[in-house]
Amino acid sequence: MSPRLNPSPETLVTRGWEDYALLDSGNGRKLERYGRFTVVRPEPQCFWSPRDPAAFERADATFAPQAQDEDDDGRWRFAGKPIETFPLAWRDVRFTGRFTPFRHLAFFPEQAANWEWLDKRVRSLKKPKVLNLFGYTGVASLACSAAGAEVTHVDASKKSVAYARENAEQSGLADRPIRWIVEDCRKYVAREVRRGVKYDGIILDPPKYGRGPTGEVWRLFEDLPGLLKDCAALLSDDASFLLLNAYAARISGLSLSHMMAEATADRSGVIDWGELALAEHGQDGRAIGLSFFARWDGSR
Q1: Which own/partner contact pairs does 26-34 have at CB distance under 8 Å and 24+ positions apart?
Q2: pLDDT in tens, 194-205
Q3: Mean per-residue pLDDT pooled into runs of 10, the chain (300 residues)
């Protein structure tokens, strides 16, 4: 018994929603709308020309990296008064957008394709237990909670978990069964394996590099295989899903799928894999691939 690997990749495209849209892209940048603000961020993959170059110059905020390395931090330049935070929503989830020093705005809009899949998956189950590792500001956790899951949210950053709890309050989900854990994800998972705890679904969205609350070092290529195997050991006998997402230039959906297949070798089901992308607003919008995913689906 082993899962069937989908022979072809999928591209999961987010085309925007009421509070977000990719308006234009080109010349190494993208123009986005977050709520009522327009924002310009670097995007090296956009080799083409923008459709409306002048619109980039009218943006409310532009991110200026300190160096050409796309992983470097930088600073925001605002057209008017500096903006710190602002309200956003995705379906029933309310959360705060934040102008961070790391290009993003405290969430990743391309993940909406995964949120939609998780919403449908959780609603098809009866009060599943879901574990969200590297949960950051909690939008995926709250999407699962709003759909009826009991959620355990784990992140090494005390600040990120605090933001996630604030987002839960904004969403009216603070009284839902959500456990908020500040800990190194590897340590937490290893302890859950020893305890014999089981989950019906697991979300795994690790960074390329990071540090735990007591100085633990996380390196994606060295540490992910072992963590993924431990996550598979936490799946209940009738578990529904194991979703893995990764942002790294040296990785692919295909490589993630083979890692997933090895971790779930003693199970049936199907492994889908591919890329998450953002599409420009409009019928003929160009799409930008931004991350890779592999997900084991135990229902197929």
Answers
A1: 26/50, 26/51, 26/53, 27/53, 29/56, 30/278, 30/288, 31/55, 31/56, 31/59, 32/109, 34/86, 34/88, 34/97, 34/105
A2: 999 999 999 999
A3: 94 96 97 98 94 97 79 85 96 96 94 98 97 98 98 97 98 98 97 98 95 91 97 98 93 97 97 97 88 96
200 vs 222: CA distance, rounded Å: 26
Q: By CB neighbour count within 10 A (0-12 exposed, 13-18 middle, 19+ buried), where does 217 fall? A: exposed
Residue pair 182/157 in contact by the 8 Å Cβ criterion: yes
The CA-atom distances, in angstroms, between 102 and each of 219, 284, 290 are 18, 30, 15
Q: Which two tokens stand for residue 215?
A: 């100085």
Name the pairing type of β-strands 217-219 and 287-297: unpaired
* Backbone φ and ψ of 95, nearest 5°: -150, 170
- Whole-angstrom CA distances from 18 to 36, 43, 64, 89, 287 are 10, 23, 26, 8, 18
CA dihedral 191, 292, 240, 206 (to 10 degrees): 20
Q: Give residues with Cβ within 8 angstroms of 55, minimum separation 6.
A: 23, 24, 31, 38
Q: At what angle do helices 158-170 and 139-146 cross, to 10 degrees?
A: 40
Compute how many other C-beta atoms are within 10 angstroms of the C-beta atom of residue 175. 8
* Rounded to 5°, angle at Cα 113 from 132 and 281: 145
